[in-house]
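To the team - adenosine-5'-diphosphate complex, inputs and output below.
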Amino acid sequence: MASVKLTNVKKIYGKNTLAVDNFNLDIADKEFIVFVGPSGCGKSTTLRMIAGLEDISGGTVEIDGVVVNDLQPRDRDIAMVFQNYALYPHLSVFENMAFSLRLKKVPQDEVYKRVTEAAEILGITEYLTRKPRALSGGQRQRVAIGRAMVRDSKVFLMDEPLSNLDAKLRNQMRAEIILLRKKIDTTFIYVTHDQTEAMTLGDRIVIMKDGLIQQVGTPTEVFDMPCNLFVAEFIGAPKMNTFKTELLLENGKYYVTPFGAKIEVTGDKAKGLAEKRVGTREIVLGVRPEHFVLSKQGDPCAISCQILVNEMMGSELHLHVLVGDNEKIIVRIPTVSLTDEQRRSLVQGTTIYVTFEGKVMHFFDEESQTNLLV
Ligand code: ADP
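Output:
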């Protein structure tokens, strides 16, 4: 068992740098939680308070129901993997992994068992006698993870563990962490600024900004129902398009009217607006790039736009287009959906017509920036 509970946790550095405030979160045993947000939003500070590497200025951190605010890091039964994995250069991989066990005077046969088991899981058995300098970046990162694994801790903390790796290796290690998670039965708290890592790894994601939690939810929840414009634009790549427009309520049906088009709101989104008794009003409309489709001139749902840039990504095109009064939006079109002629015609300067389905829209209040349906 290893649940972690943070209640009204606050961190003030020095006299008045408020790094984290009002942080409340219940992490279940064996849950994989990801803290995500832009640089400086307080992710690492929160993780370091859980680890005991930073004093807690206010509130409580509990591990398995025990308040650990005043416990030393070594007494919290946690393991931590950092961004710069700082292996001891003069020790072999085996001894790097065994280091904490040696300090704890764990018997030799137990050290051997734990290190070789961890090495097996991580696929680094053949490197156990090497020194870190004879390893690639990805292999070193595995050793750093192994060093934390052998401690058999209740909670596994990871602070940007993949950010020093190149893009290809990062993708590979991300997949390995997903597999690893199934093998090590423990609670994970993982910090990253990368929304893709957050979405692919987390059972739940905690999205932070300026020291405050914006939203906590499963990847699907935060993607489908972002609570505010910040979350809407942070989660998903390329980011959600947002533009001011009018929401119309006519004869019990809702429509949005972006750039001269008139598109009916459908499905749960229409139901949600009716339940909240939203009337005709100005809104900020959000539509993800992948939710646009090509349309035709003359269709009342069509938005006319002009191609600025066509980025060919292989399986899809990212069209940066101009709409209305020089507003820029991004439209993502799967290449398989296009005829050869269409592909050839989607060049800079061309006018195209796009639309989107009524069930994929998001509605925000401009002033409060909050989602009208949350
Ligand atoms: P993140 O991990 O999301 O990038 P951090 O938790 O590192 O953010 O930092 C949160 C805020 O606290 C930032 O404004 C940062 O400048 C500040 N901060 C972090 N560490 C210290 C420190 N040791 N002293 C003073 N301010 C700090």
